Amino acid sequence: MQYTEIMVRYGELSTKGKNKKYFIKKLSTNIRQALKDFPEVQVVGNRDRLHIKLNGEDGEAIIERLRPMFGIQTFSPVVKVEKSLEAACEAAVELVKKQYKEGMSFKINTRRADHEFEFDTNEINQKMGSAVALAIPSIRIQMKQPDIVVRVEVRQRGIYLSTETIQGAGGLPVGTGGKGMLMLSGGIDSPVAGYLAQKRGLEIEAVHFHSPPYTSPQALQKAKDLAGKLAVYSGTIQFIEVPFTEIQEEIKKHVPQGYGMTINRRMMLRLTDEIRKQREGLAIVNGESIGQVASQTLESMAAINAVTNTPMIRPVVSMDKTEIIEIAEKIDTFELSVQPYEDCCTIFAPPKPKTRPQVSKAEQYEEHLDVEGLIQRALDGIKVTAIHAGETSESKEQELFASLL
Ligand code: ATP
Ligand code: MG
Questions:
Q1: Which end is more exposed in the chain, N or C (fewer Cβ atoms within 10 Å of the end residue's Cβ)?
Q2: pLDDT digit string (tens) for 11-40?
Q3: Whose CA is nearest to atom 17 of ligand 1?
Q4: Where in the chain is the domain with CATH 3.40.50.620?
């Protein structure tokens, strides 16, 4: 039996008052984008529910696409049959059989929007219940908290049945919260920060600093692969690579070791903020977590943060590393993050960075640098690539391989 429709419930969206229309429109667009390789699908966003009409497209594959989409609380695949009780009974039996395991209970729950239909709600419940019980003799009928609920809706155009409620990803539709620049390293924390920002509706663009030849092409590719993992939630992510070699060399030459890390980070933040302005973002997202390393003491965060007033979003700021890793595993970034390709911070990290740097000292040391010139040259060297959902170096290699066959 083929699903004819998937019905989506909004959850938190339904509390958004006047903005609700906008949220629903955005969710509809995101779903259309995620399903664009299923050309027959139609997406209709109503006030209470969103309906994805499958028109013959593969329901199971579409269910997998919907699972990670933010703004969906739950969803149910639906089967539509002609408006006859026999057809509805047949479909109910098939649906329940699909889910039934020894010892399970069920009930039929009918709503009748079409009052012309020849049977009333009770009659429908009874007749369909008997049909299921007859087809599966060991099943129990149970009104309170049964294992399987067959929801039946009799409408003008047919009878709709569903038995499954699939948990969605929750959160708010990506893009409803404005745009933020994610500072994406190759580490564990920043991809998790990016995921959590997207969960609350932010569209993110990834800014990554690399320092060739000190950092390898693999380190750059790893960051791109991580962006590919985050693109699952939005369809596409713009990946902005920023050349950072000259800045790091200059800092190493002119700044006392203890302040190298602080000034490195201040330069990264200045650059990210410039890129944000050019690309009309409203905030900066990073993977800082209090106390994790020398650059993440409060004093250090304050000294770095002093270069901008732009709102900083630190989704993992008060999480333990183990909690961050749990999410990294769930979103499948952990394996990539622990690959041993070092990024620019690790390579240039001074042996003893200051854990309590002062803004005034940082400013004083920056006078030894041509801050404006360095920033300008780095901005001139930026490269922007659109990364699509699930795109990794491996998947590209496979594609290439397939095309050679
Ligand atoms: P992560 O696991 O995210 O790399 P971390 O624990 O290694 O974090 P740091 O190296 O101090 O911590 O970096 C703090 C934050 O600075 C990162 O979470 C990230 O947002 C940003 N950052 C660090 N290095 C880079 C880089 N090469 N490109 C872009 N952002 C970076
Ligand atoms: Mg790092």
A1: C
A2: 777 666 778 899 999 999 999 988 989 999
A3: 287
A4: 179-401
